Amino acid sequence: MFNTILNRRALVLQHDEFDCAPACLASICKYYGKRIPLTTIRRFAGTDKDGTSGFGIIRGAEELGFLCKGGVSPDKTFSPNMVYPLIAHIKQNNFDHYVVVYSCKNGRLHIGDPAYGLRKMKAADFKTLWTGIFFIVLPQEKFETNKDTDTKLTRFVKLLAPHKKILAEVFTASVLLSFLGIASAFYFRVLIDEVLYTGVKMTLTLFSLAYALIIVFQALLLFSRSQLMMYMGSKIDTVLMTEYFRHILKLPMDFFTARKTGEILSRINDTSTIRYAISSTSLSVVLDSLMLVIGGTFLFIFGGKLLVAAVIPVCLSALLAWLFFGPYKNMLKIKAVIDADKQSVMVENINGIATLKTLSCEKNAFERTEMRIVDSIKKGISLGTMGNIENGLHGFLHQCGTLAVYWIGSLSILSGTMSLGRLISFVLLSGYFLGPLARLLTLQPSLQEAFVAAVRLAEILDIPEENINSGGIKKDDLRGSIRINNLSFAYGTRGNTLENINLSIEPGQKVAFVGASGSGKTTLAKLLMKFYACNSGEITVDGINIQDYDTVFYRKLIGYVPQDVLLFSGTIKDNIRLGLEYLPDEAVYEAAKAAMADEFISKLPDRYDTFVGERGATLSGGERQRIALARVLLRRPRILILDEATASLDSVTEQAIMQTVDKLACGITTVIIAHRLSTVVNCDRVFVFDSGRLVESGPHGKLLRSGTAYKKLWRAQRSGASVQRASFYA
């Protein structure tokens, strides 16, 4: 099937530290002639913040059309007869990592490391890193090759379309500037060969005044062109950033659980790189190419040896740019990965500053961050050094060309075949040929950076948005009947978090989900919210599968207070009324009173106009939870889900709020997820979870009499024992 194997040293670099396995699969795809975005492979392989499991690699490979088998080499040896390329699992700096092994010859391995690029290693050295685990990947009949589908910068050039008028004005100004510049070259020729030769001062004065007008006109044109380009660049920047952020907000929840915040935010920086490329660099390419043609035309008219002397450095510079293309591109990709990791660690440390200070771990956090900053700077220095070497060589060739022109021209003057004015005119004209050419050749680093940024940004933009089923069912009279049938769910390719769950909740019932941490209670709540789709089974509300509802409409009918309450920068009033700005202040006050939040709000200097700070930092955990509860109660939901919503409150306030919820939630289906069992005593039904399974259900009293798991939890709490990971069975 594959008589000719393509790209024998194909390697796709990872975009972050968790992308190594998808990058290996992408590299093998490229090896066999198939190009596919990393984000697609991440989805196939179930890559998340913990990386990719072995099962994920196998499943991802099968989705791509490969036969994939995992194995273990007890003696950690490679043979030339093994099927290459293969994926090997290694331990590097105590971190799990995957690499591609392309071949083994004479005791040396050809390695494709998604983090660092291609390299050769002695088999003995690789053995110290290799865990012995490997994956054989072979294309099957269903595997299809394709053309290069890597996202290019040209995808974003369409952003220039709305600015055709500005582009036309910039182009016109540039053409005028080119001809004015060429006119100045002829000014010096006439000045030297004719005006100075005749010695007429009046002619010199008039000629110089005309040239002064040209200079003024040039300055005005340059200013106007710069202003137009700045205006257009700001417009493109706005579109890029807003489009990216709009798309981010519409992505499914698993996108956010599989990526670090810093990785997502690092793409914002990419928008500036792309904007510069398509607004400034692309125009520079067009305009410098235009000047190259105009200047080259006039040089061709001069012809002779001077033209040859000017063109030879051009050819050498083009060859030089081609030689630097590959290495620069790979180094840029590696630096992008390092920078994304650096930003993720910084965001993580800032968000967790309270924990760091509590544990006195500031030094440790600084060292972790410093290490990544140093890595980024080192890679930046390497990139800068490579760019400086390339630019230096281009400059050297340019100067050699200029020297050759002066040398040959001077010899021509001495031999009487050329005038001094003509030589100076040629030198100035060559500046309009060699100058634009030099700028075009030195654009490679910025263009390469833009290409890498475009790929990174486009891979996020290509991720399908969450399917909100906008044409789905919109049921205003939701009663709140919930049925869960044979439900199983797993995050990505991990083991099942929930397995074969069956339960029913009648309209208006108040039920509780209890169990040890990690037993699947919160996951089930997220499934009820349509944050994820179950792997098997179904959830119905009022007899309708929740996937058939319009997602936006459905979520508006459910009030969900999560474990980790997040308040946004703004006032308390803004946070309670979030998304319901049309409601009057009185409705906000009533909701706050119902959530027992009015008590502490009234003591604040600015009451409801008090700013809560970033993430609600100026408020305590209990105060944030009460505001979140008020936010939900304001919406008058048909189904209310409280996920540890009172965990940060004292017992007295908790009991008062639960009594208020009982009153307000009368007729509303209410699901309470709790560790403190005292809050679920009055529930109509209690569902007990253990290790992803529903093990018991019934009223509180019945479970105490005849239950096993619930009784054990109750006794443990009553005696003050820890139930963080209580085992439900003797």
UniProtKB/TrEMBL annotation:
GO CC annotations, alphabetized: plasma membrane
Cellular location(s): Cell membrane
One GO BP: proteolysis
Ranges that cross the membrane: 166-190, 202-223, 276-300, 306-325
Domain ABC transmembrane type-1: 170-449
Membrane topology, record value: Multi-pass membrane protein
Domain ABC transporter: 482-716
Peptidase C39 domain: residues covered: 14-137
Keyword list, A-Z: ATP-binding, Cell membrane, Hydrolase, Membrane, Nucleotide-binding, Protease, Translocase, Transmembrane, Transmembrane helix, Transport
Pfam annotation, one family: ABC_tran
Record GO terms (molecular function): ABC-type bacteriocin transporter activity; ABC-type oligopeptide transporter activity; ATP binding; ATP hydrolysis activity; cysteine-type peptidase activity
InterPro entries linked: AAA+_ATPase, ABC1_TM_dom, ABC1_TM_sf, ABC_transporter-like_ATP-bd, ABC_transporter-like_CS, P-loop_NTPase, Pept_C39_ABC_bacteriocin, Peptidase_C39
SMART domains reported in the protein's UniProt record: AAA
PANTHER family from the UniProt entry: ATP-BINDING CASSETTE SUB-FAMILY B MEMBER 10, MITOCHONDRIAL, ATP-DEPENDENT PERMEASE MDL1, MITOCHONDRIAL
NCBIfam families per record: bacteriocin_ABC
Protein name: ABC-type bacteriocin transporter
